[in-house]
From TrEMBL:
Name under which the protein is recorded: NAD(P)/FAD-dependent oxidoreductase
Cofactor: [4Fe-4S] cluster; siroheme; [2Fe-2S] cluster; FAD
Highest taxon, organism lineage: Bacteria
Domain (FAD/NAD(P)-binding): residue spans on this chain: 13-291
InterPro entries registered for this protein in UniProt: BFD-like_2Fe2S-bd_dom, BFD-like_2Fe2S-bd_dom_sf, FAD/NAD-bd_sf, FAD/NAD-binding_dom, FAD/NAD-linked_Rdtase_dimer_sf, NasD-like, NiRdtase/SiRdtase_haem-b_fer, Nit/Sulf_reduc_fer-like_dom_sf
Keywords assigned: 2Fe-2S, 4Fe-4S, FAD, Flavoprotein, Heme, Iron, Iron-sulfur, Metal-binding, Nitrate assimilation, Oxidoreductase, Plasmid
One biological process term in Gene Ontology: nitrate assimilation
């Protein structure tokens, strides 16, 4: 007898066109509801996996790397059995045969189709708008174009003073361009902010060195082969190397229209997110629903939920439109607006201003109900006002204190924890992803979440624009009490300021702050003279940013760097002369022996970095010891410095039978090029003549391993307490390339790592891919980093010993105590 089972029913085929935020959110929701229902294929015109478009601004400003904004990496698609086709735009929908055909020629049949093609930037059709050098601000390719232009410096004109324009302006300014924003209306972001808040924002941008021209109407973009200026209708001409058009977006209906779907401003859908063809759904910015189109993620995610439920088989799910509030971070300033804030007859305006804190709030009330609200600088009550607006709550009982926010009268007006505690469970915390307080608290307790990242991963709260991060942290603190350790990442520099290292650094660049008192004054330091944490960091950041202009402040250095020798546990010092590439000579050894005898130096030791260390030197003898060593041609080995320490080498092809290249000679060249530099922390290099790696090059900050065909460059290694093997950065053929890569790598580290961060944690933090993108993929950027490194070296290669041995610098440091004063 034979048994027989039915063949499995073939799964339905779902094709998604558009690998962006709305399309993939729909898939996430669908997989949660009906993981096995479809065979899914996703087409994306961009060559990348799904990323958080909102975060392109931080990528432009250099605050985040692309890897950090990826929402679903390729492994996610693989794990969920989704076929992902990137860099392949769908060009035709054949509705009769139910298939799509992409640019590559590939045709894929579907049972259900989801169109999520987003929108395209509006390019105003003035003469010159198609010139090279004119970009929109929509995707990673636009950001790359802007970064490339910014690397050359020069001038940028941003047309459009809305959210995108201002984010672009800020990013380009941070990247060193001269930026002018042209805005047609007379206040910025007029659709989200009232005049007062718009003016505050303009003032803030101008304070950061961005020029803002309102009432500016563009007549022409001037240029022959590429853009060179923007001419306004009033005749004014603004020179420009880059023009960013950020005047609006248009739903991307090209595909839908060509397929004959009903389209107005967008692809028209009903409450089930279905288009005029029952087999085709659509979500996102490309959609028109009940006559409305949307340009923020919150409503798109609501659409995604409904589309997913329908695809999963629900007969009930319906989208009825969204009331939107805008909670944004514009160039680091929190702004919030909701409802109608134009005011007018029968409306009452309640306004609060605190110029010193840069806070402005306006609540518009009509017939005892909130009609609209605008908050600038302090948005923590945005959710509360929005909830009352949506619910139509009577505000008469709290009318007198309404403007001071929810916590007023409770635990004090400025207590954000009390404000969050007082919210009902239904209050929306994350506007982008529509997550309310109850959902977050339940996830924290039921799933045992204890960090912001975990809450983001499980609930998506604060995973998009991030402006509700503070409230989510308050919820973690409220729910876990002492069990919440806080978020380590956003730690302020020290107790003298609330700003992080990165924020202070950006301010030094954008506000052109050139001295420690300047920084402390402009950034409103809490202490008059800083502390031992911030002073050395500020000194370093200023040295790095303004080579040749800023003068090192030795008072802001730790003792070892101040006296150019390492203090030992008995209070004496150790002295290490530089030995280029670990080479020495009879003359140098003789001079060292003489110094040891003359100053009765008790211990002489060979170090791990191939140098000779003289231990037990008295502080007052240091200048004389250095003078004697200088006389034999030796300079400081900087064994105490947050700077280049040593370049360790093996004997290489000159003596060793395995050697493939002259590793010692290359090590000497590297050391001659890099000595004297100041870096966030110490830096050690090494060159090994073959993969046997006798110089241990693969646990250095940068290590070169010579091979038959050239040189492997390894980065981010560390042999200290936390051993980390290097990552391979690149393989090159010539010594000249090794030198250029080394200079550019050192400069990238100098410019972007935080003070006291070694290269190993820095590379781990920013990701090897980022370092590769900056150094390997971008030859021009690499050359300019190297040029900046060499320029800064032209001011830093003075031997600090010589300056002090002859008594011209810091004489007081070395006088015996009895003589001081
Ligand atoms: C710089 C920036 C900052 C922003 N900041 C905020 C913010 O703070 N808050 C907020 O709420 N919103 C913000 N937004 C808006 C938000 O990013 C969008 O609302 C959201 O990304 C729209 O999602 P979507 O899926 O509809 O479109 P998208 O995310 O644009 O995805 C559409 C995708 O479809 C692809 N595509 C188009 N045509 C085809 C085709 N024929 N074949 C294959 N693929 C195709 C596109 O290449 C694109 O990758 C910002 C947008 C930008 C650009
Ligand atoms: S690394 Fe290679 S070339 Fe250098 S000493 Fe060792 S075996 Fe010789
Ligand atoms: S390994 Fe420890 S004891 Fe030895 S020199 Fe380094 S810090 Fe001092």
């Amino acid at each position: 007898m034979s048994t027989h089972t039915n063949p499995p029913t073939p799964r339905e085929r779902l094709v998604v066109v558009g690998n962006g935020m709305a399309g993939i959110r729909t898939l996430e929701e669908l997989l949660a509801k009906a993981p096995d229902r479809y065979d899914i294929t996703v087409f994306g015109a961009e060559p990348h996996p799904n990323y958080n478009r909102i975060m392109l601004s931080p990528v432009l400003a250099g605050e985040k790397t692309f890897d950090q904004i990826v929402l679903n990496g390729r492994d996610w698609y693989e794990a969920n059995g989704i076929k992902l086709l990137t860099g392949d735009r769908v060009e035709v929908i054949d509705r009769a045969n139910r298939s799509v055909t992409a640019m590559s020629g590939l045709t894929v049949p579907y049972d259900r189709l989801l169109i999520a093609t987003g929108s395209t930037p509006v390019i105003i059709p003035v003469p010159g708008s198609t010139l090279p050098g004119v970009v929109g601000f929509r995707d990673l390719a636009d950001v790359d174009t802007m970064l490339e232009a910014a690397a050359k410096g020069g001038r940028a004109v941003v047309i459009g003073g809305g959210l995108l324009g201002l984010e672009a302006a800020n990013g380009l300014k941070v990247k060193g361009m001269d930026v002018t924003v042209l805005h047609l209306m007379d206040t910025l972001m007029e659709r989200q902010l009232d005049r007062s808040a718009g003016a505050l924002l303009q003032h803030e941008l101008e304070r950061r060195g961005i020029t803002v021209l309102t009432g500016a109407d563009t007549a022409e973009i001037v240029g022959i082969e590429k853009v060179s200026a923007v001419r306004l209708k009033n005749g004014q001409e603004l020179p420009a190397d880059l023009v960013v058009m950020a005047v609006g977006i248009r739903p991307n209906t090209t595909l839908g229209k060509a397929a004959g779907l009903a389209c107005g401003r967008g692809i028209q859908v009903d409450d089930t997110m279905t288009t005029s063809d029952p087999a085709i759904l659509s979500v996102g910015e490309c959609v028109e629903h009940r006559g409305q189109t949307y340009g923020l993620v919150a409503p798109l995610f609501e659409m995604a939920k409904v589309a997913a439920a329908r695809l999963a088989g629900s007969a009930e799910a319906a989208y009825t439109g969204s009331v939107t509030s805008t909670k944004l971070k514009v160039t680091g300033v929190d702004v919030f607006s909701a409802g109608d804030f134009t005011g007018g007859k029968g409306c009452e305006d309640i306004v609060f201003r605190d110029a010193a804190r840069g806070v402005y709030k306006r609540v518009v009330v009509k017939e005892n109900r909130i009609l609209g609200a605008v908050l600038y600088g302090d948005t923590k009550d945005g959710g509360w006002y929005f909830q009352m607006l949506k619910d139509g709550t009577e505000v008469a009982p709290v009318r007198d204190t309404l403007i001071f926010g929810q916590s007023f009268g409770g635990e004090g007006a400025a207590n954000p924890k009390a404000a969050v505690a007082a919210l009902p469970d239904s209050a929306e915390i994350c506007g982008c992803n529509g997550v309310c307080k109850g959902t977050i608290v339940t996830a924290i307790t039921e799933k045992g979440l204890s960090s912001l990242d975990e809450v983001r991963a499980h609930t998506k709260a604060s995973a998009s624009c991030g402006s509700c991060t503070g409230q989510v942290e308050q919820l973690l603190a409220l729910t876990l009490g002492d069990g919440y350790a806080g978020e380590a990442k956003a730690k302020p520099m020290c107790k003298c300021t609330d700003r992080t290292h990165d924020e202070v650094r950006r301010a030094i660049t954008t506000l052109e702050l050139k001295s420690i008192p300047d920084v402390m004054q402009r950034l409103e330091w809490r202490t008059p003279d800083g502390c031992h944490h911030c002073r050395p960091a500020l000194n370093y950041y200023l040295l790095c940013e303004w080579p040749g202009e800023y003068k090192d402040d030795s008072r802001s250095r730790y003792i070892n760097e101040r006296v150019h020798a390492n203090i030992q546990k008995d209070g004496t010092y150790s002295v290490v002369p530089r030995m280029w590439g670990g080479l020495t000579s009879a003359k140098e050894l003789r001079a060292i022996a003489d110094v040891v005898d003359k100053f009765a130096i008790p211990t002489v030791k060979v170090t791990g970095g191939q140098r000779i260390d003289l231990f037990g030197v008295k502080k007052e003898d240091l200048p004389a010891v250095w003078a004697d060593l200088n006389a034999a041609g030796m300079v400081s080995g900087h064994a105490y410095a947050k700077g280049l320490r040593t370049v360790k080498t093996c004997v290489g092809s000159e003596w060793c039978r395995f050697g493939t290249q002259d590793s010692t000679g290359l090590g000497v060249k590297l050391e001659r090029m890099t000595w004297g530099t100041w870096t966030p922390h110490k830096v050690k290099l090494a060159v090994s003549g073959c993969p046997r790696n006798c110089a241990e090059a693969t646990i250095k900050d940068l290590g070169v391993v010579c091979v038959d065909s050239g040189y492997e460059l390894h980065v981010g290694g560390n042999g200290g307490m936390h051993v980390r093997a290097c990552d391979l950065l690149v393989k090159v053929e010539t010594e000249a390339e090794v030198l250029e890569y080394t200079g550019s790598y050192m400069q990238l580290y100098r410019e972007e790592a935080r003070y006291l961060e070694r290269t190993a944690p820095w590379v781990e933090r920013v990701g090897l891919e980022y370092v590769k993108r900056r150094l390997v993929d971008d030859a021009e950027g690499r050359a300019s980093l190297n040029a900046r490194f060499l320029f800064s070296q032209s001011f830093s290669q003075d031997d600090p010993w010589a300056e002090r041995a002859n008594g011209s610098v810091d004489r007081h440091e070395f006088a015996p105590l009895a003589q001081v004063g």
